[in-house]
């Protein structure tokens, strides 16, 4: 089990609040994963206040990381508990928080010293991010080595 921290004031909003309506919020989060093409029937999403727990099996580590970020980059979510089995549990994802006003090119410059590596960050975070300037400060993204 690994717990990831997120800024609950940023991200995609939900129709149902996380507090008090956990079952409805969990349903909306699972629909969001399905809309992004990141899940199947073997995933369980549970909400307890601002904490989301996801369990099940992922086909690959890449899919698992995208699922964790899609859930965490949701307004109201402060923590995501990772109980997903991807068969590669020894791999630790590299996540990075976007600074206010930063684009993917800026983030690539900060991480890799090369603003042109922004395209790699874009591919690593699709389908949640669809363009180099579509990120917001506070979002947590995948940053492959």
Automatic annotation (TrEMBL):
PROSITE patterns: LYSM. Pfam families: BON (PF04972). Residues 94-143 form the LysM domain. Coiled coil: none annotated. PANTHER family: POTASSIUM BINDING PROTEIN KBP. This is LysM domain-containing protein. The lineage of its organism: Bacteria, Bacillati, Actinomycetota, Actinomycetes, Kitasatosporales.
């Amino acid at each position: 089990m690994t717990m990831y921290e997120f800024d609950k004031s940023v991200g995609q909003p939900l129709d149902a609040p996380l507090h008090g309506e956990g079952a409805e919020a969990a349903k909306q989060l699972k629909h969001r994963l399905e809309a992004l093409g990141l899940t199947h029937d073997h995933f369980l999403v549970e909400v307890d206040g601002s904490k989301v727990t996801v369990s099940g099996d992922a086909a690959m580590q890449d899919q698992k990381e995208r699922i964790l970020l899609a859930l965490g980059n949701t307004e109201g979510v402060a923590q995501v508990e990772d109980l997903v089995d991807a068969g590669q549990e020894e791999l630790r994802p590299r996540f990075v928080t976007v600074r206010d006003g930063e684009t993917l090119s800026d983030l690539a410059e900060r991480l890799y010293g090369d603003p042109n590596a922004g395209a790699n960050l874009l591919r690593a975070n699709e389908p949640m991010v669809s363009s180099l300037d579509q990120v917001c400060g506070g979002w947590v993204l995948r940053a492959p080595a």
